[in-house]
Specification:
Layout (H helix, E strand, L loop, with lengths): L2 E5 L2 E4 L4 E5 L2 E4 L2 E3 L8 E3 L4 E4 L1 E6 L4 H9 L1 H6 L1 E2 L13 E2 L6 H10 L2 E9 L4 H9 L5 E7 L4 H8 L3 H15 L3 E5 L3 H6 L19 H14 L7 E3 L9 H10 L5 E3 L7 E2 L7 E2 L1 H10 L3 E4 L6 E7 L2 H11 L4 E5 L3 E10 L4 H16 L6 E2 L13 H9 L1 H9 L10 H4 L7 H16 L15 E4 L5 H6 L3 E4 L2 E5 L2 E2 L7 E2 L9 H12 L21
Parallel strand pairs: 1-6, 2-7, 8-11, 11-12, 12-13, 12-27, 13-14, 14-15, 15-18, 18-22
Antiparallel strand pairs: 1-4, 2-3, 4-5, 7-23, 9-10, 16-17, 19-21, 20-21, 23-24, 24-25, 25-26
Helix pairs in contact: 5-6, 6-8, 10-12
The structure holds zinc ion.
Length: 546
């Protein structure tokens, strides 16, 4: 039986209404407990800040796209070698490479080093799920799960064309169970399928995707309903059409209205909140998103903040990457993933001297700072798309410190900032509890992870302890202690232990009758047989459905 009493720290646990309460935190066998014997081992956290372990709701760390990105970026490997850490837990420490798309072991070490203990890969092609499990197996410490790409899936689109909504839902359930996935992901609904046919962009959510019976709206409606009917812990996770284009706010709001009244998560909203139109000045449309959020409590989202510096843009949305490749002249990869989805990758640098990058930075911060409800709009950079997860501490600093933020704002390209809320001045500074909400408690609630994101009795003992510092970027980049399932993995600021993380997945039931039809489709079109398609075994137990 392992026990630990953490003493003297200020607990920031917004899920349980605790805002800096100084009290002991008791841990036994990997969970938070109410009390411990007085002779239990102690960890002195006097004067420090205690939060639950961080949860990244949307990153790209373990997909076939990340493998491809690593192969595209040898220069990053050479520039940022990662020596094996000095572990003392008997596991074999592994060297690796960093950059914007770190190798698997380095990904686990570095997330834990920031106090993050749970990470979701937001875009996995079902056919590549096996590889994702293998990558997560090699990503130590963090618990990991992934979202399965379905918004351009050939079988699903056929069910929509045939009006077979129930079969579409059963297929989604079968696909989640077969892959060991956690949630349904939509990327540019219908648009990736059209891109594979060399059509650049969907213009509106009512454009036909080949067959006039298939539209982005139908994809959104079908999969939103499926996720809710299956009672998945996380609702459908939506990357809207027209990412990155001026004027795309119209499409984003249309997409939200298409599923109004139903739980849905809209991801990296920064990239979908632009006014203006092609050839005209871009503008921030963050206020319009915030107005919608304020009126629709069923909607959640994450920001997808852009941070200045190097990034790797990497998405199922190949059309976007073509545009970025053409405008930046950078090398790129485009890949069609047979019957399911696509993938594009372009390494990129967000320069504060560039008008669009400066606007993107501003739009993201406006979403955070105008948000009426931090529980429903949480932190992400869409790692590594808007910047590496290693930039989160600086982002937290920007949210907590107006002086720091306004000084930075003055130095960036002002071309598209006229009339923006941030340029006009926003006084808001996030509190420590609000940071705990957007990095832990909020993502946990959005993901339906009842034992994560908080420090109440019964919670997983994933805990991050920060020493207070005036320099908030440094404070959040260098936690003094990090615990994973009760084990101290970061000690005095040094990574010491690297246990394996758990896999987070769901197993919704499905009507077995649907399998006959799916098998017929596989027999006719698949490169993998129906029998060999499902991932044979996922270690651990699935997350319980309500
Ligand atoms: Zn993403």
């Amino acid at each position: 039986m392992s026990m630990l009493r953490i003493t003297g720290g200020a607990i920031h646990d917004p899920a349980n209404g605790e805002d800096g309460v100084v009290r002991d935190l008791c841990i036994q066998d990997g969970r938070i407990v109410a009390s411990l014997p007085s002779d239990a081992p102690r960890l002195d956290a006097a004067g420090m800040v205690i939060m639950a372990g961080g949860i990244d709701i949307h990153a790209h760390v373990a997909a076939s796209s990340t493998t491809m990105a690593r192969r595209l970026l040898p220069e990053e490997h050479a520039a940022d070698p990662q020596a094996a850490p000095a572990l003392d837990d008997g596991t074999i420490p592994r060297s690796g490479t960093g950059g914007t798309v770190p190798s698997t072991f380095t990904t686990g070490y570095r997330y834990a080093g920031l106090g993050y203990t749970t990470v979701f890969d937001a875009a996995v092609a079902a056919v590549a799920a096996r590889g994702t499990h293998a990558q997560f197996d090699d990503t130590p410490i963090v618990d990991g799960g992934f979202f399965v790409l379905m918004g351009n899936d050939e079988y699903l689109l056929r069910q929509i064309a045939a009006g077979e909504t129930e079969r579409a839902r059963e297929y989604a359930a079968w696909l989640l169970a077969s892959t060991g996935g956690y949630a349904i992901k939509i990327v540019n609904p219908g648009g990736v399928e059209l891109w594979k046919r060399n059509v650049r962009q969907v213009r509106t959510i009512d454009d036909a995707v080949g067959d006039p019976r298939i539209t982005p709206r139908k994809v959104l409606e079908t999969l939103t309903a499926a996720a809710n009917a299956l009672k998945l812990p996380h609702p459908v996770h939506i990357h809207c059409n027209n990412l990155g284009l001026p004027g795309n706010i119209a499409t984003t709001l249309d997409s939200m209205r298409a599923v109004a009244g139903h739980r849905a998560h809209f991801t990296h909203l920064q990239y979908h909140s632009y006014g203006g139109e092609p050839g005209k000045p871009w503008q921030s449309a963050a206020r319009q998103i915030i107005e919608y959020f304020a009126a629709h409590p069923e909607v959640t989202g994450d920001v997808g903040q852009v941070m200045f510096g190097p990034a790797t843009t990497l998405t199922a949305d190949g059309a976007v990457e073509y545009m970025l490749h053409a405008s930046s002249g950078r090398k790129w990869v485009n890949s069609d993933i047979e019957l399911e989805t696509g993938c594009g990758i372009v390494p990129y640098v967000y320069k504060d001297t560039a008008a669009v990058a400066a606007l993107q930075w501003v739009v993201g911060l406006e979403l955070f700072l105008l948000s009426p409800d931090p529980w429903r709009l949480v932190l992400s950079t869409d790692h590594p798309n808007g910047g590496s997860f290693r930039s989160y501490p600086d982002l937290i600093h920007l949210l907590m410190d107006r002086t720091y933020r306004d000084a930075r704002l003055k130095t960036i390209n002002q071309k598209y900032l006229a009339g923006s809320a941030l340029a006009d001045g926003i006084a808001r500074e996030y509190t420590l509890n609000e940071i705990a909400i957007v990095t832990r408690a909020g993502p946990a609630r959005q993901l339906g992870l009842v034992t994560k994101g908080h420090l109440g009795v019964g919670a997983d003992a994933d805990v991050t302890i920060y020493a207070r510092e005036a320099d908030l970027s440094h404070m959040f980049a260098t936690p003094r202690y990090v615990l994973k399932a009760g084990l101290v993995v970061v000690e005095e600021g040094q990574l010491r232990r690297a246990p394996a993380g758990r896999r987070l997945f769901v197993r919704p039931g499905h009507d077995p009758a649907v399998e006959r039809d799916i098998k017929a489709f596989f027999d006719r079109y698949g490169t993998i047989s129906f029998e060999n398609y499902p991932v044979a075994r996922v270690a651990g137990t699935p997350v319980a459905l309500p």
